[in-house]
Amino acid sequence: MNRVSFFDFAYRPNFRDQIDDLMSQAREERWDYIHDNQSVPHQMLVNYINHTFMRLFELNEKYPEEKYICETEEYYCFDTGLFTKNFEPIYAILSPNVKDKKESWRLDGFFKKSAYELRKIPELPKRASYFDSFEDLVYDTRLDLRVNMDHILDDQRNRDRIPEVYRNSPNLPMLFSGLAIEYAKIRIKENYKAAVPQYFNGKIQFLIPISLGDPSVVDLSLAVGKEGGIYTGHTCLTLDMAYNNARLIAKPESDWLIGK
After folding, report:
1. pTM of the prediction?
2. Is residue 1, in this structure, part of any structural domain at all?
């Protein structure tokens, strides 16, 4: 099934202002992204809108009768999945793009459910879904977890995500595959919310916390997916990357990911 990027689909002449407006409407949460020790304002929100649109586009192609997107000759509308401070859903509205033939639609902006701009839409579109059962969102602690340590420690992209203080330690393999993994399992057994769901390549995975030194400090996240009757892990993520990925499904509540 095709994955269509929102940036390729829609003409966005005032996107930065529109993202600022969306952020001011939506319930307050973390949207800035840290890259190379530099804060990129609102980048998580931009990523969120793009991936939400791609998921809705997929669902609309697969289940057109469910109306994940409302499209007529006059408008194109989808649910952002976000809410105002008073819990009104917020929608994106696009209109036909007459100035630029490359994109057929132009983003008008983001509007709450009661806004005048949405009155022309008698049945508003559905929110994106990423799972078939709530059981898909709970890590099964009874299953074995097998970590591909060679890929994590020898792949440069993975290795660069490990904090520098541990990256070149001769004890890193023992730290990672031994105590760090066992402690992560204990955290999940103590509180199932410690394993945070993410949506990747059409499947639900889990992000689990990895502490390489002080158990009270989470240094990075390990992404694990279910294959057969076990969990496998071969990719680690920085905490910003993990939050960005988890936010596509829902606002994370796990303490290690939101910094509490």
Report:
1. 0.85
2. no
